[in-house]
Structure formats: C-alpha cells, structure tokens
C-alpha cells in the first residue's frame, strides 16, 4: 500500500464556507493546504480520534475528530474512494472509517449533544445538522429559549446569522436546562470578552488601514484596537502573516498584519492592518506579568522590561503572541537602492515589495500575491508616457493585477528578480531590447493577436477601396445627368417666352412677375433628380461581390465546430475568447497558411470587383443615354405647347389688358398635360367672349367689306 494519498479539488468547511485546496494523507498525519490563502492545516496521526465517512452536498465527505475536541471536515470525494481511504486509515492510523448518514426526515424535534467543538442536533442516532461552536459570536437566553448568533461569512452570498432552540422545562430541581445549554455553548464559543488586564498597551499608533490613530491593547488571546470612533477586537487565530517593510525614504517602517477572516466596519472589510512607524521613535516597555510568567509563557522571546525602537517592540510582541514569523524584503534592490518600487495600482500610488515568496503592495488597497498562485507576469508598455512601463500579474484563478507608472530604470532589476524566481514571463526575451532602445520594448506586445482589431483594419481597407471605386462611378453618373448647357438652354427658352409675352403686354411689372416663378422652377428642377440619386446610392446591390474574410475569420469558420465539440455548452462570448486564445498560441507557420488563404480570397475579390465595376458602369451609361433622349423629347413637346399658349395669351392681352396683368405666366415645369388642355379650353371661351362683346357697327362693317 502507498505511504501517501493525495486528493486535488477538496473542499474544507471552515466557518460555514467551503475553501478549495489539496489534501494529503501520510503516515505522519493529514495535511490540507488552502489554495486561496496558502494556509496549511497539519493534523498529527497521534491526535486523530475518529474518522467518519458520509454523504454530503458535494458528493461524499470525511469528518475527522481529534483528541483535544477539534473537528475537521473535508468534502468533494467520490464514492469509489471509500475503500482506498478505509484501508489507509486501518493500516496507518489504526482507525475504523465509520459510515454515518445524515437524517433527512425533516423533523424539528430532537436531542442536542455537545461533543468537543461541535453542537449536534440528532433524531434518534442520526445527526440532522452540526454547528461548530467556534462560529458562535453571541449566546442569549430567554424563557425556555436559547438564541445563538454567528459570525458573518464574507465568502458566502447568504450567511446563517441566528438559530433559536426551544428547551422544554424539566422536573429536576436546582438545574435550569436553559442555563446549562448556554454554558455549554459559551465554554466553546468564539465570544471575545475583555476580561483581566492587558499585557501591554501601545498609545496613539498611526494606522493607515483602518485610517486613524489607535491605542493597541495586547491581551493573551486577542488584540484590541481602541480609537476615537471605532473599536476592533482581533483574535490571534485570525492573523495569517506578519510583514515588516522599510519605506522608500528609509525613515519610516510599515508593519502589516494579514487577517483571515478580515475585520469589518459596516460594509467595509479590512484584510490587512497597516501601521506606520518612524524609525526615530523609541519606547521603554514593561509587561504586566511577573518574570516567572513571562519566562514560562514566552520562553525567552520576551522579557518583562524591554526598550528600543517602537516598531521593533510592536513587531517583537506580536511575533511572540501570534507565534508566526515576520516576513521582510529579500535580496531585491531597485534602481535607487531601495527594496521596493514606486508604482500605481488602480487610482492610488504606493510601493510594491518583491519578497522571497511573493509580492506585497502597500498601501491603498493592500495586495499580497504569493508566487505559487501566479500563472504568469507580463511587462507592458506604459499607456500615458514612454518613460514608464506596466507590470502585470495574472493568478491561476484568472485575477489580474496591473501595477502601472513604474520608472523605466527599474525594468532591468525587476526582470532579473522575476527571472531568478522562475516565474513564467509572458513576453520573455525582451530585456535586451529594453536596454538598447525603449522603442523596441514598446513594441514588445505586437505579437499579441487582437482578432477584432485585425478584422476592423481589413474591413477599413476594403471600405476605402470600395469608396474610391464608387466615387469614380458616381462621378461619371452625375456628370452625365447634370449638363449645364442643357439647363441654360431651358432657362433661355423660358425667358424667351416671357419676353414675347411682356413685349405684347408692354408692362414692366408683368415682366418681373413672370421672371420670379421661372427662378423658383429652376430650384425645384435641380432638387428632384438629386434626391433620386441619393436614394439610389443608399441602396446596396445584391449582385456586388462579398468582401473577403481575414485569416483569423477563415480559421475560426473552419474550427468553430471543433471548439464546440471540445467544450460542450460553451456560450458565444466564451467561444470567441477561447478562439482568440487558440489563435494567439498558434505557431507562425500555421498562421502563414491562413494568411495565404486570406490573400488568395482578397485577390479573387479585387478581380470580381473590377469585373463588377466595368459592368455596372456600362449599364449606367446606357440608362443615362436613354434618360437623356427621353428628356429631350419631353422638352420638344413642352416647347410646342408653350409657344401655342404664349401666342393665345398675347392676342388676348391686346383685347383685355387688365386680364393679362392678373394672369401670370407659368413655366414649363408647372405645365402638365391637364393644364395645357384646360388652357386651350380657356382660350376658346375667351375668343367667344371677345366676339360677343364687339359692337354692331363693327360687325356690319365687317360683313359689308366681305
């Protein structure tokens, strides 16, 4: 049998949340490493008291109980792994892995049992649910009732905040079941009470997050921050890491305390407690304990009377009480000799510290990134100026951090550090280019393929070519349809007819009235064909050749079904992202094959466009010639009708001058076939009226002469 068993993607239940990580079982014990925080839980084999296998929401789970009462739960196992785990427990831990199923009857009446750190609500012999008492933040009692309140879980969308138990009265004298229930809960609950005197107090320390000045009271099990507005109680069990970082000005020091879970104030969460000290501040400290207690508890790490720099005293006391190492910057030195780099993260400027096992940024917002959770780093050109560059970090979970506005001189030092730590550099091989010429470094991300940008460029080129071709064709078309000579002739004919009418009338006012409608008619005549031309341009010819696709689009159309089959149920947006990643990762040789296909498609399109443009020009010239011929015929017909109308009006104007003044002449655009027919009928009526109005003497003389 193997000496170790390893399981990936196992979930540990901690304070109601499921933390992803890796579980390893060995002869020495059980080790679980949290993939989010990097925290390691180590359970010695000699401490294991019981192992339980049961079915849970995420498949099957393993519950381990230790001899000191602690409970550890791990979910995410498959049913087939039970035999392997059971044999391993028998061989190495000498424990039987018991199978226990949860009760699913849905009853709300049962028995409460307290075992170690767990409150178990059972129906018969089967547990219904279990509550880790370390999650309890408050316990209150009422008449026959006990209320448990829980710490809020920041990782879960919905948190259980309160549970009430009804405790029936009993006949036993001298024992209150409600108080007995509450005492059992409070003995194991995580209820922080400031009982007793503080070991030491640090007055008026400058705190950057949360901002303000706080008195820090050091108690045996927790840290108390007392400010003017807020108070925070931080258990030492929530302290994850300690950092001591020198400021770039070499006159100040940062002391950073990493917390999990964070302290809360309203909706704000503080994952880091950052204190700022001046190196010149000194302090003499006396612990509120006798020397024997100090020696027994701290084993020489602290003494009753201590003196030195303030930041040294705070870090020394915290290290002894929390029992964790203090992380300091490693061998990295920037261009100015400092152990940090000035940069900006999001909207604020701060300092980035390269550590031996990660990066930490202070101070707003603080960020800590471990090397083991980094997928790759990238050096990118600055977006605002060529005197700086950006340093990008992407984690395995897909989170991206961009530290911008880093001075150009820091590039070589940072590149050497990242290279020495064997981190995956996305644009490796560009360091020499940076030293020789910054322009070469600025073009370092040209090989990153942007499918959308390439497609837009291709379409833009094709659109410009089409615009040039269409402008040539439309220019010939407008030249043929718009002939200034013809319009001048038309206007001349109109004014000739006006001139004959005005000469017969002999009135200057009538000439001005006749010229005005002619000018308006010219404007109307010019606008009508232009509207038609615009409407014809807007329409798209369905017979026109289709634009060619880019190399990326040709490749995507050929591989779309394959990507769908490899990732069933993938959405359209995720498919396009995946396709872009595959195209980026493709070798240049394979891309050249699709580039050749795209070039062939482009040549075919240009050839087809030339043929199409020649054919469309010949068709347009034929239609224009037919329109021109038809237009001339219409002009000749309208000219004849106008001359007839002008002659009739001139004869009537000599006989009735008042009527000729009131009737203004209409240009040929306003004369239709209906109007011409009505004008002829009016002419006949006017002739009859003129004959009837002649005096008898004139008729007789006329007849006598005949």
Automatic annotation (TrEMBL):
The keyword Manganese does not apply. Component of the FACT complex, a general chromatin factor that acts to reorganize nucleosomes. The FACT complex is involved in multiple processes that require DNA as a template such as mRNA elongation, DNA replication and DNA repair. During transcription elongation the FACT complex acts as a histone chaperone that both destabilizes and restores nucleosomal structure. Pfam families: HMG_box, PH1_SSRP1-like, POB3_N, Rttp106-like_middle, SSrecog, SSRP1_C. It comes from the Eukaryota. Residues 474-496 have a biased composition (Acidic residues). The lineage of its organism: Eukaryota, Metazoa, Chordata, Craniata, Vertebrata. Residues 458-552, 609-706 are annotated as: Disordered. Residues 545-613 form the HMG box domain. Residues 517-531 have a biased composition (Basic residues). This is FACT complex subunit SSRP1. Keywords: Chromosome, DNA damage, DNA repair, DNA replication, DNA-binding, Nucleus, Transcription, Transcription regulation. The gene is Ssrp1. Its main location: nucleus. Residues 532-544, 634-645 have a biased composition (Basic and acidic residues). It comes from Corythaixoides concolor (Grey go-away-bird).
């Amino acid at each position: 049998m193997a000496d170790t068993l390893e399981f990936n993607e196992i979930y540990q239940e901690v304070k109601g949340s499921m933390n992803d990580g890796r579980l390893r079982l060995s002869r020495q014990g059980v080790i679980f490493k949290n993939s989010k925080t990097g925290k390691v839980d180590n359970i010695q084999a000699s401490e294991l008291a019981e192992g339980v296998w049961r079915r849970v929401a995420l498949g099957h789970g393993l519950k381990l109980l230790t001899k000191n009462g602690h409970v550890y739960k791990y979910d995410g196992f498959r049913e087939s792994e039970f035999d392997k785990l059971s044999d391993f427990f028998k061989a190495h831990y000498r424990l039987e892995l018991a199978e226990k199923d949860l009760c699913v009857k849905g009853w709300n009446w049962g028995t409460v049992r307290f075992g170690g750190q767990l409150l178990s609500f059972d129906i018969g012999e089967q547990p219904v649910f279990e509550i880790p008492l370390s999650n309890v933040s408050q316990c209150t009692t009422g008449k026959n009732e006990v209320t448990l309140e829980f710490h809020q879980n920041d990782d879960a969308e919905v948190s259980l905040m309160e549970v009430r138990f009804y405790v029936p009265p009993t006949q036993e004298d001298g024992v209150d079941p409600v108080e007995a229930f509450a005492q059992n809960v409070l003995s194991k609950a995580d209820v922080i009470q400031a009982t007793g005197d503080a070991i030491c107090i640090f007055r008026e320390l400058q705190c950057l997050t949360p901002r303000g000045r706080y008195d820090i009271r050091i108690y045996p099990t927790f840290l108390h921050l007392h400010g003017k507005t807020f108070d925070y109680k931080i258990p030492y069990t929530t302290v994850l890491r300690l950092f001591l970082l020198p400021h770039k000005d070499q006159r100040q020091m940062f002391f950073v305390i990493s917390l999990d879970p964070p302290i809360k104030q309203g909706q704000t969460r503080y994952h880091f407690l950052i204190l700022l000290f001046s190196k010149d501040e000194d302090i003499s400290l006396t612990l509120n304990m006798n020397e024997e207690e100090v020696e027994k508890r701290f084993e020489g790490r602290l003494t009753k009377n201590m003196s030195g720099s303030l930041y040294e005293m705070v870090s020394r006391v915290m290290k002894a009480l929390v029992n964790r190492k203090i992380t300091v910057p490693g061998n990295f030195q920037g261009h100015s000799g400092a152990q940090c780099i000035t940069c900006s993260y999001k909207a604020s400027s701060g300092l980035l510290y390269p550590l031996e096992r990660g990066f930490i940024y202070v101070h707003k917002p603080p960020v800590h990134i471990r090397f083991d959770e980094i997928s790759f780093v990238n050096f990118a050109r600055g977006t605002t100026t060529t005197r700086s560059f950006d340093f990008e970090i992407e984690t395995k979970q897909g989170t991206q951090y961009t530290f911008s506005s880093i001075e150009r001189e820091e590039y070589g030092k940072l590149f050497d550090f990242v290279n020495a730590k064997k981190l995956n550099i996305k644009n490796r091989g560009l360091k020499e280019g940076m030293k020789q010429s910054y322009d070469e470094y600025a073009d370092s991300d040209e090989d990153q393929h942007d499918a959308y940008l390439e497609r837009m460029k291709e379409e833009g080129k094709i659109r410009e070519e089409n615009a040039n071709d269409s402008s040539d064709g439309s220019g010939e078309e407008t030249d043929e349809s718009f002939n200034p000579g013809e319009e001048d002739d038309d206007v001349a004919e109109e004014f000739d007819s006006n001139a004959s009418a005005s000469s017969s009338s002999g009135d200057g006012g009538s000439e001005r009235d006749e010229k005005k409608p002619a000018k308006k008619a010219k404007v109307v005549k010019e606008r009508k064909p232009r509207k038609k031309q615009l409407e014809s341009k807007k329409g798209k010819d369905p017979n026109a050749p289709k634009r060619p696709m880019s190399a990326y689009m040709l490749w995507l159309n050929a591989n779309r079904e394959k990507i769908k089959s490899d990732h069933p149920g993938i959405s359209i947006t995720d498919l396009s992202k995946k396709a872009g990643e595959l195209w980026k990762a493709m070798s240049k040789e394979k891309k050249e094959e699709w580039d050749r296909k795209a070039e062939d498609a482009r040549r075919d399109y240009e050839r087809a466009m030339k043929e199409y443009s020649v054919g469309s020009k010949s068709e347009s010239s034929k239609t224009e010639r037919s329109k021109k011929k038809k237009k001339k015929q219409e002009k000749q017909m309208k000219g004849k009708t106008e001359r007839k109308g002008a002659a009739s009006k001139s004869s009537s104007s000599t006989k009735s001058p008042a009527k000729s003044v009131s009737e203004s002449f209409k240009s040929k655009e306003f004369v239709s076939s209906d109007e011409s027919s009505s004008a002829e009928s009016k002419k006949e009526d006017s002739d009859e009226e003129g004959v009837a109005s002649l005096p008898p003497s004139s008729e007789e003389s006329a007849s006598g002469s005949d």
